[in-house]
Fold this protein.
Amino acid sequence: MEEIYAKVPCRENQLNSLLDLLGEGDEPLPVSVFISGNMATGKSLCVNTILEHLRFKHVNIDCIECYTPKIMYEAILSGLHDDQVDMKCDSLWELMNNLNAYSTQQYSYEPIVLVFDRAERFRAMDQNIMCTFIRLREFCNLNICTLFVTHLIYDSFHFKMGVREPIKIYFPNYNKEELFKIIFIHQKAFVRHLTNNHEVDCGIKEDLERPELFANFLNAFLSVFYRPCRDLIELQHMARVNFVKYCEPIIKNEIKYNDLSKLWRHIAPILKTSLELLYLRINTSKSTAQSPAKENHEWIEPQSYNFENTLKEELLSTKTFAQSFELPYYAKFLLIAAYLASYNPPKEDKRLFMKNHGKQRKRLQQVKAKAKISEKLNTQLGPKIFTLDRLLAIFYAILEEKIGLTSNLLAQIATLVELKLIAGSKEIDLDASKYKCIVGYDFISAVAQTVGFNVRKYLYDFM
Amino acid sequence: MESTTSVSKGVFLFPNGFKRTKHLKKKSKQPLFESIFKKEPWYMTFKSNWNIIEHQLKELHEQTYSAMLNDVVNYVKSFDQTCLYDSIEGIIPSATLLTGVNQPDHVNQFLALIHKIREDVTPHVAMISSQDAQTVKHMVESAVSQLIHGQEYLDDSADESMIEPTVRLKKSQCTMRSLLNWYQSTHMNTSPKKLKHAPPKKILVIIMPDFESFNCNILQDFVMIISSYISSLPIVLIFGVATSVSALHKSFPYHVSSKLLIKVFHSHPSHVYMNQVVENIFLTHTSPFHLSGRALELLTDVFLFYDFSVTGLVQSVKYCMMEHYYGDNIKTLCCNREKIEETVSKLKSDELENIRQLLSFRPFLEVQDCETKIGLFEDDNFFREILSKEMHKLHDYLHSFYLCVHMLSALVKDLPKNLLGKTVREIYTKCTTEHITETQPYRECMQLIGFQSQIKMAESIKNALKEVNSVLQTSSPVKPLRSTPSKTNTISVKVSNDLGQDFAKLIRIHLLTFLRQIESANNEGLILGNANEEQEHDLDTDVAPGNRYKLKEKLLKATRVERVQSEFEMVRSRFMSYLGEVFARGLQPPRTQTFHELLFFSDVASVKKQIVGSPRGALHLALNNPVHYLQCSCCHLPSPESISEWLPDVSIAYKLHRECGKHINLYDWLQAFAAVLRPDEEDEERFQDASLQARFTRAVAELQFLGFIKSSKRKTDHVMRLTW
Amino acid sequence: MHEINASQLSTQIKLIRKYLKLKIIEDNITFRDHASERKHVYELITKAVLHGESHSALIIGPRGCGKTALINSVLHQVSKEADLVNDAIVVKLNGLIHHDDKVALKSITAQMQLENAVGDRVFGTFAENLSFLLSCLMSGTDRRCKSMVFILEQFDMFCHSTRTQTLLYNLFDITHSKQAPMCVLGVTNRIDVMELLEKRVKSRFSHRHIFIFPNENTENSEVKSPLSNCKEMLVQCLSMPLALGRRDLPKKRKGRKSIVSNEEVMDIDSTDSQYSIPEQILTKCRTDVKQFQHLEWAFLEDWNSHVQSLVQDQKLVDSLEKLCYYTVNEQIIKDILFQTVSKLSPSKPYIDAIELSNTIDETVSSEQRVKLLQSLSILELSLVIAMMHGIEIFDGQPMNFEMVLHRYTKFANANSSNQSVPRPVVLKAFEHLQQLEIIMPSKSTDSHTLGDTSTSRVQKEYKLYTLAAPVHDIKEAIKSYKALPTEITHWFNNTID
């Protein structure tokens, strides 16, 4: 009992209710249980530990990999039969037959549990399947129970009438204290991870291993990160990254481990910046350090260091991202043309791209007014589709020198589509197909800068 | 025989085509032109030369990619041991290769990667391209089947114990579970044989070369699936990303990307690679075939402006070579200099005659006295002799020319505003097109070099030296050109006898001396002594033809005594003047040389059409002036605008429709059409015969098919014009 | 009550718990009320079985009102009176599983034990196949066919199958032909099931509907209150049969076994065997009654009285009432009871009225969505609020990320106190919302059908979303959100900024 609580911290209520439901020994199981809760709230962990603890016969099925129900059925059967027999089964009916056949072999009333992880994927399949599994017990004469684990709530499974409602258990998020507790459990691991990758003399090592140090760090850390993020995994990751930074001055003997205020002043800005990397999982050299092979890590180090910044840059500002990869000259112009084509109303083209655009004054006010009242600018509504001819027309309009329409040029359009910079229907005849530019404004403006072109001047929204 | 029958079934309708299929088959083995031209000498030279180049390309390719490949492979290797992620489970180690935007170039790169991984790390590699990942099902199946059956394709050296358990699975059976079972059956059992043969844990590598073109939802599911198995299967993912890392983050929401441990590897930007290719392979005296500046410019422009495709570049160079060699044997002279004599001896008299016709032969002729001229025209053998000599001269010239080009580029590389351009190819184009030493930018560059500080100077000289050395060591141990029978006839050409190898050697020595002097120059007064004896020990190392400079130096050294303070300037000025002379001699554009046509390919116009094809242009030309393609006598036009009844119907209709506005009235069009075809008849009897209308409608239909017009809903019996 | 030592107690409780669980989950035979309907069905089946008449009927009633239980109990009873095994065949099909005709036919064959007879011969039509099956049944002596009972559960699913309703057609057709006596019972919870039938099917169906409405007791045709019904059920499910507790259990059991067959049905009210689980259920569950013989009579009496007292508890009654408003679905009630029973343990040997009512509340109003909203981080929550405002302003038209971000940044800039997060992070948070389906892509209802290329072409910044969570839920969440910054509540409350 206690070891379960130890293994799955801060989930006593859920554990208890699950244990009660599953009962013990050969007591009959509930028909089906629906377990929902946000990501990283220990749903699967709870279920698995309990099942291990009770030593029930159970089959875990990850619904994502069941792109055909066949896989699921066969997984269930091969899970029930201990000896590895791969049996064919590609319809519910056959599954039922097999289950009943299995039940005839049974003498005791032994409990069987089927766990469907990521159950939301059921909705991609035929609806009968889940309806059947919810009331599986009625169809086969077994003491069988189906557990559905998902991050969605029951209502978003839009069932039709006549579905047996399962018993629902909800897993709330960990609150701040619980998060603290859980991450604190891994304190050893953190310290090990730290000491593995940095050479520290033993005196400091002891300081580092002091739990109160880590506790202080965690307090500081959570005070910043708890607000934007509640995801345990992500928090652990960020904590791992930042703890190293937190300890660096201690390792360098600049700050004593017990000088909290100094440490706080040291870490606060770091935390603030790394808050911007939340969720982004930029592989800093720290996480390469996870790879056990030291020597490898050694010489990857410089490389990853100087790329680290660029990566960060890339992800934070698409500007540098745009400059970070090179395009052929004309391709750049094609891209710009595509952007203009998809963010300008076609009827404005004449006025925008011809030398003598007529009565612009009046328009200006209109545009201004429109921009004011609504946030429905084109740049917010997203790109419109355009035809190849229009693209080329704009291309030639914005390109200074005259060049022939060569096959290479046309090939470039295809390339841009391949690179997911332009979305287009991959049809055979280019003339018929429609395109749409799928890059952001700052990206395109950055690209335009490299060829010395002012996009803003040609955008309808900014007139 | 079975194979041939099957082929014949495919190809021939009539049963008696059997013996024919045989020789067709023989042909189909090797490309058509090869089977035709195999005998031709020009073809053989072309073939040999191209093979050389291809070989060099391969090597270059190897050594450019090897660095990154090693990185990746080592990174992958690092997960070979049981990798521990304390407290964060289900994280897939993944490498991301940032390859350039041009994906076709990367195919062999990835093949090399696979090969390397199979050699060094693990036999189980799967490569999934976006085509065979339409659904998750397909993706998983192809991945699994490749992983399981991979080592059988790999090599027969894979031990039997691996083979016999893996009975061929059907595609539908290839699920992750089956993979898991297979893996446990093959690798978890620790038979001693297995242990010594392979480490107990073999990692599985899955490569996705073209990341962008995957459907991201499928990819996400795939990643999730793998992450649920990662605890039991050591899988490593490798993404080939063409654009940038943030492509990954664009297509992965965080609950997926949190499952990945992303590590980024950058490969060279493609234009760097292109420069390498051009400089190290084509712009060397060793390469037998040379592009004129214009041609090179064209190719590089195609590269820079349109597609960053190196393969494309190489292919177009190959095309140029074909164009160069095709069909005339005198181009056999375009070979490396060992072969010159024999090729010359092989030449037939009419081919010699062709050579005599070459333009660059004229100036050479002018400077000769009459009996030489006569000899040249009458006596083939004499001409042969001269020819071979000239060819050698040409090669020497090339040698020094490229040397100078490289030196120049090395010197001007880090000048403030690059007047001559940064890369070797730019300078090369400049040098080949004009007498660069006369040009303004050149002079400015020289001035700039003149103003360089001491250290910079030393630096740039060092660079130049590097170039020279590299050239010297690359240059094949060729026999010194004195051995060429120039001494025999006294009335031979005025050989500018200090080109080629010796020239290079000479330059090296001088550069060395200058370098030493400049480096030692700064410590002013007390230099004299050691500077002197340096010079002494220079003297004996020195070879004859350098004498003048030595003298000059001596003189200057004599004067140095009183003007100690400006010693560095003096050295520098001497260096500059020296450079001036060298370049003046080295950097004459090729067209000044005799017989340069033989080695240099300059016919840009003919190639351009093929290399940058312009479909619409061609179409227009074809319709506007059919003669250009038909080559028929019937439809010659006084001017491309004019219309004659002899033209094909389509082109008539086309020409007519070009005169109309946006909307074309079919009736008027038909009338005009008829009027062209039957100028003499009256309107009404024109409309009597249906054949006209039929022809007209067909022409219109064809135009519509070609996409010039389309029927418009708005106005009845009108069509809309699509092109302008 | 009298005292027992702990070990005994624990065994007692365990046994009771198990027994009750068995009863709640497995007992699908015992059936209360609806005597007339039950009689009706009973007659139909017996006619078919005994006198070889053909019938067809639909049993219609809301979900969980005991349709299946009714049929089971009838079959159970019939099986006692006549031997179903020899002169009748019961074929059960379920719309969920057998909605495909081929599958259905296969399973029919299987349930008639005719696989070997069919072997691998092929049939032109469905009808041929079926008739062949029937002909196989002709027993040799008198050319009279075994009568068949077809029970089609989830009857509507058979109709839903986009293909023609061949199975139904043939079955009903046979009921008219004299080929074989058979009784086709459809079970469904859809009143409008008749509209789903094809014309030819409808014409062949004898329009015999048996409606089962919960909470109506028909022998004295006055509707009895759902509450009392619910109470009844509670007692029925929770109380233990005193019969088990007999001191002199073993020898008495012998006698009991002998009489059990007829006693079970007729004298329900014999106090000792009341509330007991039918024999065959136990056998089905492979549990032997003997293991319950350690139960003590006194303890059981005690228990039952406890249950009785439970029903009197006022709070519980209230919550039961609430439950009755919420649902009349017996399955749900059973689930609730199951949960309460499973909470029994030696430490707390009695059902706590409070807990029970809590469980009821839990099921009646489980505000999972609110909880989900509360589990969001503040950033995500404020995104939701931004979206809500936006939708209020542009009366309910979907928004894309750009717009939401626009609003959010406006808010964030307005009050500097919350630290600004870069765009990609916000985007990730937005994706998280979509993962939890708090926001839904406006085009396709399901998030996972986005796989098709058309939608994946669109930049995710510009994909249009609608708010899936209703506003009042968000209100609830905000109200009871722990440590929510005041400015956000403020922002939430004043709509148009």
